[in-house]
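Example 9 (inverse folding). The structure is encoded as follows.
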């Protein structure tokens, strides 16, 4: 393969400008949502909003308002929606030249998967960083170590969950349509969070550790070893266990996408 062909090969697998624009929108949505939640009490917003405490009911049965729930889910929704066609649109664009002449379908798919890993990580960590800075600007005065600890732990779980959700969305989009796929995936995700959040107190704690959606919410976990900000989490429910489960789901869906792209006829 000539140097020119190799350069073209690499260029075609690089993210496009629109991808960075979409990423910027997702981070901006994260910041706006955090600011809207922190206007009244930025300290509480760190745990209730950024860490997902709004989704975890206490023994007195408190529930989040519809506005708070929509605001909390809006960053993840924007990410999954804007990247729901990452494989379908890419295949339609590259199938006539890139795949036949420069790379195999498997190599192309792996390149796209790598892009989504980077996008998901950027969305999770930059979004939390922007949100944390925004809350500090509003007057959040918790200790810096606590602020960074909550933001980082939530970003780790958010990265794994956002990657899984966007991969499932793209997997369904190959067989249906990107908007339909997004609607189905996010409706199931939101329903899982609402359903568990509205279960009886003890039942919710028995179910939460077994659902992927709740595994991506920091406040459902046992954080007693490093912060007292989440008092309603499930005892013994570790962040590490959730990361393992979410990662297993990512690997499975990535394998399914590779299989689907191999057989998808777009030429």
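The amino acid assigned to each position is listed next.
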């Amino acid at each position: 393969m000539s140097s020119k062909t190799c350069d073209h090969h690499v260029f075609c697998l690089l993210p496009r400008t629109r991808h960075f624009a979409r990423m910027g929108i997702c981070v901006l949505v994260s910041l706006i949502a955090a600011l809207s939640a922190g206007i009244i009490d930025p300290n509480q917003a760190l745990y209730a909003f950024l860490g997902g405490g709004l989704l975890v009911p206490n023994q007195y049965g408190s529930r989040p308002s519809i506005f708070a729930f929509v605001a909390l889910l809006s960053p993840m929704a924007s990410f999954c929606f804007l990247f729901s066609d990452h494989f379908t649109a890419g295949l339609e664009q590259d199938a006539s030249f890139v795949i036949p002449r420069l790379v195999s379908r498997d190599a192309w798919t792996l390149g796209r998967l790598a892009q989504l890993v980077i996008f998901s990580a950027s969305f999770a960590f930059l979004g939390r960083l922007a949100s944390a800075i925004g809350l500090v600007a509003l007057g959040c005065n918790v200790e810096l170590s606590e602020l960074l600890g909550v933001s980082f732990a939530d970003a780790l779980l958010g990265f794994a969950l956002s990657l899984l959700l966007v991969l499932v969305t793209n997997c369904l989009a190959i067989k249906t349509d990107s908007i339909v796929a997004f609607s189905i995936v996010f409706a199931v995700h939101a329903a899982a969070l609402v359903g568990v959040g509205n279960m009886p107190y003890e039942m919710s704690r028995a179910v939460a550790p077994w659902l992927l959606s709740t595994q991506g919410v920091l406040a459902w976990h046992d954080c007693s070893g490093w912060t007292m900000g989440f008092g309603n989490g499930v005892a013994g429910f570790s962040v590490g266990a959730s990361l393992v489960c979410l990662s297993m789901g990512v690997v499975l869906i990535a394998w399914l996408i590779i299989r689907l792209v191999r057989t998808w006829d777009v030429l």
